[in-house]
Amino acid sequence: MSTTAPTATTESHRTLHDGWTLRATSGDTPVDVALRAIPATVPGLVHTDLLAAGIIPDPYLDRNEQQVTWIGETDWEYRTTFTWAPDGHDHHDLVFEGLDTVATITLNGRELARTCNQHRAYRLPADDSLVDGSNELVVHFASPVAYADQASLDIGYRPHTYSHPFNAIRKAACNFGWDWGLDAASSGIFKPVTLHAWSTARLDSVRPVVTTDGSSGHIDVAIALQHAEDVVPVRASATLIAPDGVQHTVDAVLDGSDGTLALDVDGVQLWWPRGYGDAVLYDLEVTIADDGGVLSTWAKRVGFRNAVVELTPDSDGTSFRVVVNGQPVWVRGANWIPDDAFVTRVTRDRVAARLDQAEFANMNLLRVWGGGYYESEDFYDLCDERGILTWQDFLFACASYAEEEPLRSEVEAEVRDNVTRIMSHPSLVLWNGNNENIWGFEEWGWEKRLQGRSWGLGYYLDLLPRLVAELDPQRSYTPASPWSGDIDRPANEIDHGSVHLWELWNRVDYPHYRDTVPRFVAEFGWQGPATWSTINQSISDAPLTPESPGMIWHQKAQDGNDKLTDGLVAHLPLPDHTEDWHWAMSLNQANAVAFAIEHWRSWSPKNTGSIVWQLNDCWPVTSWAAVDGYGRAKPLLYALKHVYADRLVTIQPREHGLVAAIVNDAATPWSGDVALTRRSYDGTELATETVTVSVPARSTQTIDVPADVAAFGDAPVELLIAELDGERGFWFPVEQRDSPLPPADLRTEVVAVDGGYDVSVTAASLVRDLALLVDKVDVDATVDDMIVTLLPGDAVTFRVATTKTLTPEQLTSASVLRTSNQLVSDWA
Question: Which of 249, 460, 524, 561 has the fewest CB atoms within 10 Å, measured from its CB?
């Protein structure tokens, strides 16, 4: 190469995202794919490029998934050219932040690397291959399906869920299909690729370990350097910029490959989770320099807080408690899965929209599930800003994993990459070893099938906690979810640690949530269909029925429709009309989840939180999500808004009778008179009593419902209400299907307002579960509330946000303005 360029100091990063083409190089492919180069987007995936070129049908629609499975069975080649001229820098590296997954990289015909891990970044020295002028960069991807199949043979069979051996390859497990996801094994350059030019030395990694005593703060900035040739001293500087602009700087000379800069700051503002205070962030900037100037820079935001997940033996078993800055946090959470089957389509704006919905539902924690990805900087940045706590699973899910080479080294490399990348984020409170794998070994029949082979326990009990302790020593770690706190105790033990509760959805029914009081629920849920507009946009069945071909294809759970039916009919009658079936199943999902959470919250602080499965979906599918695959809120999201509110009144059974639980998760005390009233369906007051309460902040108080108030005379037509400051809890002594719930007698008024409409509804009769399914009249419309119960004479106003002109008839039609009354009275 020419060496005539001037000497350069400050590093440069040049993205190489232009001019890429894609072609198939093997496999059973359509002729036009095999014969021509296709324009490719980088970052991107084969599926999205083929879709953009009009070569494949949209896998989200109907049964098109069947028509694209060949993509994952095919080898693919990405190719581009770029010009380069000597720039005076000592070194030039090609940096691939993410390759999906089995890749061979060549530059000007020279092989730079072979990779087999989607969850790692790769830095490839390129100086020996770069030429002055035009350079050709090629990335060849082998079929991930074929690779996983062969790797499973090479390392020996390990039990796993579903059909593909996803546990034999370091790739997002759900990319091979799940009980809510597409089988769409992808390939592609799915994260940025850059040409990094640098001289003398560069920052290889920066790990800020942040601590605070509540008033002063301390940061140990651990720096690892890469030197161009011989190790030479460089000046390192770390600057912390407070929200008010005040700067704190520390400098040191580093004369080796690593070092630590210590920053002390007085009077720090703490980072708090939402509902507890402000999520205060500081800018941290790190540079290294020599006499010629700045060589390399790094910048992120950090927060001062102490956070720990406590598993402590007590008289009830073993706790599982999140504590931030000394304050116990009752977790109101949801599990997070990849927000799209094709992850490159998940933009920052899209993440923000999902987090808007999480905040709408009063959530304070999201668990990033272990069958997907180490989440993006956008995800963690936005959670930091909003005060949404996060936990990140390491990527092991529902399977056993070989602990030998070559997987072991890949696992260690990906963990080092991602712990280093994510650990600066104050929202992160927990690293978790796996999803359900220890539980699976204990209860899913793996042991005899393993025939003595390793299955991952060494990762969870040794390698992972050792790496977390080394790289992120201030963060909590648990080996698994569920986790009882002791490897000698069953992982999913109800009185110990975190539990996953799936027997109710799978086999039992949701009233049995009340049979136990778990310490912390990390997974549970109930299925429901996508919103009506999403179904109609993605499924073209005629007629559309719960069992029509497209609907069944978009139901991935084993016996899913049977479980939907079995979970409904004890509570509501099964409708025969598809639109009524859709409403009944959507409502039952909301009611089941709310039922469980009200029970657990009433037992606070013995129970310390719930994480519903799941917040979001990755395509249009019947699933456990509160937000469907097109980003539309299902009734469940509104139920979560109510049951995750700071303040909750709920009536619950205890051994001695009914109690009203007054749950105050707000920062201030809650005092007043609780009105306990038994009424008939027509509104007649049958018995009443008032009890004065004073509930401290972040606490729960239960009061007995007097025997005469709870003495139902004609149970099918009576209900009990507990009310404090307008917050109500209801107790219906019989199931809806067993009550003579009359047709809803409603008076409505629709008024145009800025940005949409106010829809006011006044009830002349008892109205249960009032909802406004506005997506039926405008796919982009939203409403501020639903799943509301009204007593005779009550009124509520819904705010509908829409850009369309809608009529009162559209907004109040019987298919849009829905109630439980319709389901029960029409059946009766």
Answer: 249
For helices 348-360 and 377-386, the axis angle rounded to 10 degrees is 40
Task: With beta carbons less than 8 A apart as the criterion, state whether 142 and 149 touch.
Answer: no
- Torsion angle of alpha carbons 77, 81, 86, 89, nearest 10°? -40
Q: Looking at the predicted structure, is the pLDDT value of residue 580 above 50?
A: yes
Distance CA(611)–CA(91), nearest Å, equals 47
- Which two tokens mark 434? 């796996």
Helix, strand, coil distribution of the chain in percent, nearest 5: 25, 35, 40
Task: With a cut of 50, say whether residue 3 has pLDDT above it.
Answer: no
Structure tokens at 335: 């599990």
pLDDT band at 4 (very low <50, low <70, confident <90, very high): very low
Q: How far is CA 457 from the centre of its chain?
A: 25
CA–CA distance, 827 with 465 (Å, rounded to integer): 56
Report the candidate in 178, 167, 265, 168 with the shortest Cα–Cα distance to residue 221: 265
| Report field, pTM of the whole predicted structure over 0.70 | yes
DSSP state of 600: H
Residue 610 to residues 267, 336, 348, 666, Cα–Cα distance (Å): 34, 13, 27, 17
How far is Cα 330 from Cα 96, in angstroms, rounded to an integer? 40
Dist CA 648 CA 663 (whole Å): 5
Distance of alpha carbon 63 from alpha carbon 532, whole angstroms: 18
Asked if residues 237 and 250 have their Cβ atoms less than 8 Å apart, the reply is yes
Question: Is residue 381 within 8 Å of 301, Cβ to Cβ?
Answer: yes
Q: What is the mean pLDDT of residues 230-245?
A: 95
- List C-alpha distances in Å: 560 to 13, 223, 598, 823: 49, 51, 25, 21
- Mind giving me the DSSP string for 374-393? PPPHHHHHHHHHHT-EEEEE
Question: pLDDT digit string (tens) for 191-223?
Answer: 999 999 999 999 999 999 999 999 999 999 999
First to last CA, the chain: 85
- DSSP letter (8 states) at residue 444: S
- Give the integer Cα–Cα distance in Å for 627 and 586: 12
- Torsion angles phi and psi, residue 81, rounded to 5: -125, 150
Strand 365-368 and strand 389-393: the pairing is: parallel
Q: How far is CA 781 from the centre of its chain?
A: 24
> What is d(CA 108, CA 134) in angstroms, rounded to the nearest whole number?
9
Q: Say how many CA atoms lie within 13 Å of 465 toward its Cβ.
A: 10
Max distance between CA atoms of the chain, in angstroms, equals 97
146: exposed, middle or buried (C-beta count within 10 Å: 0-12, 13-18, 19+)?
A: middle
Cβ atoms within 10 Å, residue 248: 18
Q: CA angle at residue 800 from 681 to 337, to 5 degrees?
A: 95
Secondary structure, 3-state, 146-203: HHHHHHHHHHCCCCECCCCCHHHCECCHHHEEECCEEECCCCECCCCEEEEEECCEEE
